[in-house]
Amino acid sequence: MATTKAKKLRELSGEQLATLLALIGTSDSVELKVTLPEHDQQATIAALGLDPLEAQIRQVYFFDTPDLQLNRSGVAVRARRIQGRAGDTVVKLRPVVPDDLPEDIRRSASVNVEVDATPKGYVCSASMKGKTPNDDVSDALGGRGSVRKLFSKEQRAFYGAHAPEGLGLDDLRVLGPVFVLKEVLVPADYGRRLVAELWLLPDGSRILELSTKCAPAEAFQIAVETRSYFESKGLDLSADPQMKTKTSLDFFAARLAEQSAR
């Protein structure tokens, strides 16, 4: 498993760029992302013609220890309740090197290996996904069911292989929910599927992320086209990305610490 922290793309040496190309070439997909600072979010929403009435409502729950032991180990565990369809779950490992993953994991239909790239850096992850009824998520979080049983047998094995020893899924605390509005659009002057997600944290702070996925072979071409499109809309791509998972985990971990102190 790779442990090198992501660097800004412009800071990469030739050797590091070769590593990035190898990661992309052995991944299943590439997701290009940008997050917008709060002071630019309203202008971005207007520029792209985003309509909250067209958005899908989601509730995102993370699971970790109060001191984020899982996150420090490179593991993320999540469940979502989703408007209009079944919920889902994911056990994610990052960073990873695709060729270092066991063959059974690499070939699993439940696993997607993806490079997430922002204007400031990149990271490769392996996500094992599953489906679960929205009501089962509510029951587990309300103490009427087991968190462990939200995840498939394959997911539980994947978790057990990478989580800190002795830390079971039912030992984790709930960190959430984050209220999310997701809208999918295909702007006429862009011609690609673009996903906008607005994450709303309980303290009123917001994370607006725009993203598009592409095949590894077209990653650099799509990156250039996407950057050009965003800049034509006046979007500020110079701000450091606000990562959704890290920001959410830090927020709810701090809330747990405050509750424990009281």
Give short descriptive properties of this protein.
single chain, 262 residues, alpha+beta, Hypothetical Protein Pfu-838710-001, 31% helix, globular, disordered N terminus
CATH superfamily: Hypothetical Protein Pfu-838710-001
Domain count? 1
SS field, number of helical segments:
8
Query: Residue share in helices?
Result: 25-40%
Low-confidence stretches: 1-7
Tell me, briefly, the overall form. Answer: globular
Distance between the termini: 39 Å
Strand line-up across the major sheet: 1-5-6-4-3-2-7-8-9
How would you portray this structure in words?
The chain has 262 residues and is an alpha+beta fold. It has a single domain, classed as Hypothetical Protein Pfu-838710-001 (Beta Barrel). It has 8 helices and 9 strands. Strands 1-5-6-4-3-2-7-8-9 form a 9-stranded mixed β-barrel, surrounded by 6 helices. A hairpin with a 5-residue loop joins strand 8 and strand 9. The termini are far apart. The model is unreliable at 1-7 (pLDDT under 50).
Summarize this structure briefly:
The chain has 262 residues and is of the alpha+beta class. 31% of the residues lie in helices and 31% in strands. The protein has a single domain, classed as Hypothetical Protein Pfu-838710-001 (Beta Barrel), CATH 2.40.320.
Give the topology, please.
Elements: H1 14-25, E1 29-36, H2 38-48, E2 56-64, H3 69-72, E3 75-82, E4 87-93, H4 103-107, E5 111-118, E6 121-132, H5 134-141, H6 153-162, E7 173-185, E8 194-200, E9 206-214, H7 219-232, H8 244-261
Parallel strand pairs: 1-5
Antiparallel strand pairs: 1-9, 2-3, 2-7, 3-4, 4-6, 5-6, 7-8, 8-9
